[in-house]
Write a structure and sequence with these properties.
OB fold (Dihydrolipoamide Acetyltransferase, E2P), 5-stranded mixed beta barrel, 2 helices, 36% strand, elongated
């Protein structure tokens, strides 16, 4: 079963007629390959372009079919933004310092003992 979806081109290789689309449902990426039978690469997309395509899942892999350009360079910064977020997420976060809260009862007793 297939459905139509919008996506943003994250990567494309014009000479090979291949591209990777980030899908509007934020699910798995969709992969596009030009017409393998004729060997013609019909791809003219660049990273950041908004496209509409038919998506089918084959053996747990999303495949884009018949993509059409909706808007050129609509999300031109998206590939870099996603790379930056991935790099930030992969950085080791320092362990939070243990938080020690003084117990108020001990402070009052200690203050009363010195009088």
């Amino acid at each position: 079963m297939s459905e139509f979806m919008y996506g943003v081109v994250l990567w494309s290789d014009l000479s090979a007629g291949k591209a990777v689309f980030w899908c509007e449902d934020h699910g798995d990426l969709a992969f596009y390959e030009g017409d393998a039978e004729t060997g013609q690469a019909t791809l003219e997309f660049s990273p950041g372009d908004l496209v509409e395509f038919e998506v089918e899942t084959e053996q747990r892999l999303r495949r884009a079919r018949d993509p059409k350009l909706v808007g050129g360079q609509v999300f031109r910064d998206l590939p870099e933004v996603l790379r930056a977020r991935e790099a930030l997420a992969s950085q080791e976060m320092p362990e939070p310092a243990p938080m020690v809260l003084p117990f108020a009862g001990k402070q009052k007793r200690a203050a009363g003992a010195t009088r």
